[in-house]
Design goal:
Radius of gyration: 22 Å
Shape: globular
Structural class: mainly beta
Helix content: 10-25%
CATH superfamily: chitin-binding protein cbp21
CATH architecture: Distorted Sandwich
Number of domains: 1
Number of helices: 2
Number of strands: 9
Length: 210
């Protein structure tokens, strides 16, 4: 006959069973589709493990002063998602964005106390054939959304952010979801194609000889 577990033993067992669930992370950008999310949808291929858990790209927060090392930013420094760090001009499927206002939507699989979300974009003239580094980005975020040190209350959060003018062609947008009560953040990169700015030809002014 099996002996019943004591109350402390039951609690220990429940915590042990819950630990894997608590460790399951936690959020990704699904609109516009991030690199990791397009691995999940198979629009990006040869992605490795991230195709099964795009919500798990979690690493140390504090970018750009701290955070993942250069060359590992897309994967948040995680070796199991190293495929995300591959970088060429043609490696990843791109989404069409524009300078000016754009909406970015995070999808959450688990709630966290949130410090903020930050958005960065590569510089005009960055090298798309080198792995992402701090030198690739403007290190001043073009958008900061405060989290109020409160847990996310819905499965989605939409952020309206203004992509700065003066960029065209292929750019990478990096977003960090900085968690308030841990030392970590979730990292998502978006491969974006921005149209060239319209060229306005000045009208010729006819000067009368009289």
């Amino acid at each position: 006959m099996k002996k019943a577990l004591s109350c402390p033993s039951r609690i220990t067992l429940l915590l042990a069973l819950a630990a894997p669930l608590l460790a399951q992370a936690h959020g990704y950008i699904d609109a516009p589709k991030s690199r990791a999310f397009m691995c999940k949808t198979q629009e990006n291929t040869a992605c490795g493990a991230v195709q099964y858990e795009p919500q798990s790209v979690e690493g140390p927060k504090g970018f750009p002063v701290a955070g993942p090392a250069d060359g590992t930013i897309a994967a948040a420094g995680l070796a199991q998602f190293a495929e995300l760090n591959a970088q060429t001009a043609v490696r990843w499927k791109k989404v069409a964005l524009k300078a000016g206002q754009n909406d970015f939507t995070w999808y959450f699989t688990a709630g966290h106390m949130t410090q903020d979300w930050r958005y960065y974009i590569t510089k005009q003239g960055w090298n798309p054939n080198q792995k992402l580094s701090r030198a690739s980005f403007d290190l001043q975020p073009f958008c900061i959304i405060k989290g109020g040190f409160a847990p996310v209350s819905n499965t989605h959060a939409k952020h309206s952010c203004t992509i700065p003018a003066g960029r065209s062609g292929y750019h990478v947008i990096l977003s960090t979801w900085n968690i308030a009560d841990t030392g970590n953040a979730f990292y998502q990169v978006i491969d974006a194609e921005l149209p060239a700015a319209a060229v306005v030809n000045p009208q010729k002014v006819m000067i009368s000889p009289f």
